[in-house]
Structure formats: structure tokens, C-alpha cells
Design goal:
Blueprint: E1 7-10, E2 14-26, E3 29-38, E4 43-48, E5 58-59, H1 63-74, H2 84-96, H3 100-116, H4 121-142, H5 146-159, H6 165-179
Antiparallel strand pairs: 1-2, 1-5, 2-3, 3-4
Helix pairs in contact: 1-3, 1-6, 2-4, 3-4, 4-5, 5-6
């Protein structure tokens, strides 16, 4: 299933590499564990191989899926709860799924809200975290380094929620970057 060197995504933390696969004895039981290094935050996660699917571990998307993510990022806002607490929980639950399109939707909606009304401190922190997680996966999918992926994502988001040439130009650049 998974092997050392595979690029994977651990929900709510982001993309990284499997750096080790080993047998460990825990509570008298021998189990195989994957050690995953999450690059963008220097975190190491250990996951029992048998629980990989249960915790939402998945492979990084490919180049074709980047275009689908781009469409999600540049699409219109979806209906969000008006109440701050409900909106925060709604977005947090989407992030926990590990689904990149759900994550892209959270990033897009928070970006639009930031442009229109501004974000609360909690939502701002969530926005920064969601962008880092998304960029960590796009980095591998697009063959970029961490900084380039963050800049690409910021470029796409710069066109979201603005009118006129800036949106068109940012979207064209992002599409060109997605197909390059």
C-alpha cells in the first residue's frame, strides 16, 4: 500500500513524506507503523498502517486534479452560516475531512470573506492554516518548492473577489501555471 518515499496527506496537518515504515510493539501488540514527516511545520506523525484509511491518510493529488482545485478556488462562494461560531465549526469540519476540494472551498470562502468584511482572529488563523495545508499538497502536485506553491496560491486568491482585469489576469496566470 504505502512505502517509504511516498508523498501523502494527513488530514488537518498537510502533505509530507513517508520517511519510515517499521514494526513496533505497543501494549504487547506488534503493529506496523508509518512515520510521516509533514514538511511545512516540521511535524512528525506516526500512524499504524492498518489505520491509515481510517484516519484519512491519502496520496497527494496529481497534476490533473490541480485544475479541479483551481476551479474550486476561483468559483463563487458557497452559502456559509452567518453566526461566527457556526461558520468556524463548519469550516473546521470541512478541513478535518482531508478532502482537498473541501479544503480549497474553505480557503476560497475565507479569502472572499476577508476581502468583503475582514476575518475575526480565529478565522484569520484558520485561513492561514488552511492555506499552508493546501499549499503543502500543491507543492508536490505541481513540483514546486514550498514558497513557490504559497505564492501560486496567493496569486490565484488575489483574483478571487476582485473585479475587472486583476481577476482575469490572476486566473489566466493560475491556469497557465496549472498546465505548465
Amino acid at each position: 500500500m504505502y512505502k517509504v518515499g511516498d508523498k501523502v496527506v494527513y488530514p488537518h496537518h498537510g502533505a509530507g513524506s513517508i520517511v519510515k515504515k517499521e514494526q513496533r510493539e505497543v501494549l504487547g501488540e506488534k503493529r506496523e507503523y508509518l512515520t510521516i514527516k509533514i514538511d511545512h511545520n516540521e511535524m512528525t506523525v506516526n500512524v499504524p498502517t492498518e489505520n491509515a484509511d481510517k484516519v484519512g491518510l491519502r496520496r497527494v493529488i496529481g497534476e490533473k486534479e490541480v485544475e479541479v482545485v483551481l476551479k474550486a478556488l476561483t468559483g463563487g462562494s458557497t452559502e456559509m452560516p452567518k453566526n461566527w461560531n457556526r461558520r468556524f465549526k463548519h469550516n473546521r469540519d470541512k478541513m478535518k475531512t482531508g478532502d482537498i476540494l473541501e479544503l480549497a472551498e474553505v480557503v476560497r470562502n475565507l479569502s472572499l470573506r476577508d476581502h468583503e468584511k475582514g476575518l475575526s482572529t480565529g478565522e484569520k488563523q484558520m485561513f492561514v492554516k488552511a492555506k499552508k495545508i493546501l499549499a503543502s499538497e500543491l507543492r508536490y502536485a505541481k513540483g514546486m518548492d514550498e514558497e513557490e506553491a504559497a505564492e501560486w496560491l496567493d496569486g490565484v486568491l488575489a483574483g478571487v473577489g476582485t473585479n475587472g482585469k486583476k481577476k482575469t489576469t490572476a486566473k489566466k496566470k493560475a491556469v497557465a501555471g496549472a498546465t505548465a
